[in-house]
Amino acid sequence: MNRLSVAIGVLFLLFGLGVVVGQWGAYNLDTGIEKHGGRATGFVTKKTFVFSSDGDSDYVLEYCFSLPSGQQLRARRTVSKELWSSLQEGESFVVLYHPENPNRNFPLGSGVTSFGVTVFVWVLGAVFLVFGALIFVGRIRRKSADA
Prior knowledge:
By secondary structure, the chain is an alpha+beta fold. It has one domain (about 1-145): CATH 2.40.50.140. The protein contains 3 helices and 5 strands. Strands 3-2-1-4-5 form a 5-stranded antiparallel beta sheet. Helix 1 packs antiparallel against helix 3. The model has no long low-confidence stretch (mean pLDDT about 85).
């Protein structure tokens, strides 16, 4: 049990840290693309509505766009119901992309991370960090009290 509690504490700490750092990186990447990324005209090639048994729905947009070099890229992204409903197959819209990695792209206004989601994930990560620290520090204190 002693080693198990230390291992669980360390796992909670690592998971919390990974969540916080990963979400921060994704948020920074998306906001960087929104501010300084490339812009292209995309065309809707297919729209799909996916209803899952848990009641959640996904609105999937498939599209293509061309880079300034002439290279054409295809992408598939889950988007908001509002954006999905506002576009028809063949219709154009603005695509934002990372200049060094154009496969990292999304329709204008539908980046992967929003500030609200980022804050929620930070709080979740912080909870894991706190619980991990409590378990880890509690185990160290208990060990020093036993000595």
